[in-house]
Design goal:
314 residues, alpha/beta, D-Maltodextrin-Binding Protein, domain 2, 2 domains, 5-stranded mixed sheet, 13 helices, globular
Length: 314
């Protein structure tokens, strides 16, 4: 009887919160990347709704398209990359409102398994597929080339679009390699189509690989909704750390991966998520340098003008 009453009350509370919830339009810079799965988990577990927020989720093929959607007022919040902060300098009407993830554990460099590319050195001067110009995938290729002593143009960046398009281009030999999210990389290998040449997790420790953006319009007119969204987001991250099985179940459905593969991705990538959203000075300094290295900007910007931490949980 007590249990029945408790369940009834819980259902009533959820119904009430749903009736009063504000809707935020959220865009992801990749459909099936584990990096952006917290949005789906927060929605499906009711953690956003608990904070009075409903989310509508859209997916885009890279940072540039997320920024375009925010500029066109198609979405309120964009889940993109640290390098994507450069769009703010170029006039995108947005700000970074939270550091979402740090070390780039989410990405791998894949090649065909036909031995045309045996080692990283074989990619010097070759075409490597990335999502869009100015994206984190492009920056990782340039930074890898720089660390190899080839200069930032040591590999030829080829914007291809989403992960599926990049993998298809590798298979058809339009490009020699591609940077893709870890889930896609593991599936690529398991299907026998290729192999992982490089994991980017060890490339950088002081970094913000992913950032949560909000439009200037949402910042000006819906500040409380942004606070509620971030409260739900970081509660979702805590849930994911605690509830591995449920996280793997939802993530596998979103990414289209089986349970063993999803569990492997979970173990590899959960450490990258930021628990409080605070931007780190060293990571911002690396990002600032990256914009000049990539020729995205002519000079290093004042990074503090590109972010707004006032919506983070206290």
């Amino acid at each position: 009887m007590i249990r029945t009453l408790a369940l009834t009350l819980a259902g009533a509370l959820v119904a009430a919160s749903s009736a009063t919830a504000e809707t935020l339009r959220v865009g992801k810079a990749g459909r099936d990347a584990f990096s952006f799965v917290p949005t789906d988990i927060g929605a499906q577990t009711g953690l956003f709704k608990k904070h009075g927020i409903d989310v509508t989720i859209s997916s885009f093929g890279g940072d540039a398209r997320v920024q375009q959607a925010m500029t066109a007022d198609g979405i309120d919040i964009g889940l993109g990359s640290g390098p994507g902060l450069a769009f703010v300098v170029k006039g995108s009407p947005v700000k970074g409102i939270a550091a979402m993830a740090d070390s780039p554990l989410t990405f791998a460099l894949v090649v065909r398994n036909d031995d045309s590319i045996k080692t990283l050195d074989d990619l010097k001067g070759k075409k490597v597929g990335v999502s869009t110009v100015g994206s984190v995938t492009g920056w990782l290729v340039g930074e890898t080339a720089r660390q190899k002593g080839w200069g930032y143009d040591g590999m030829e960046l080829t914007p291809v679009g989403d992960d599926a398009s990049r993998v298809a281009a590798v298979k058809t030999k339009s490009i020699d390699g591609a940077v893709v999210n870890l889930a896609v990389a593991f599936n690529f290998v398991e299907r026998g189509d290729g192999r992982v040449l490089l994991l980017f997790g060890d490339l950088l420790k002081d970094f913000h690989v992913h950032v949560i953006f909000a439009t200037d319009k949402a910042i000006a007119t819906r500040p409380e909704a942004l606070r509620k969204f971030l409260a739900g987001w970081f509660e979702t991250i805590a849930f994911m750390r605690k509830e591995k099985a449920k996280t793997i179940e939802i993530a596998g459905h979103v990414m289209g991966t089986d349970e063993p593969t999803t569990a492997r991705i979970y173990d590899a990538m959960m450490p990258m998520f930021n628990d409080d959203g605070r931007f780190k000075p060293k990571a911002l300094a690396v990002l600032s340098r990256s914009y000049v290295d990539m020729k995205t900007l002519p000079a290093e910007p004042d990074m503090r003008k590109l972010i707004n931490e006032s919506f983070l949980p206290k």
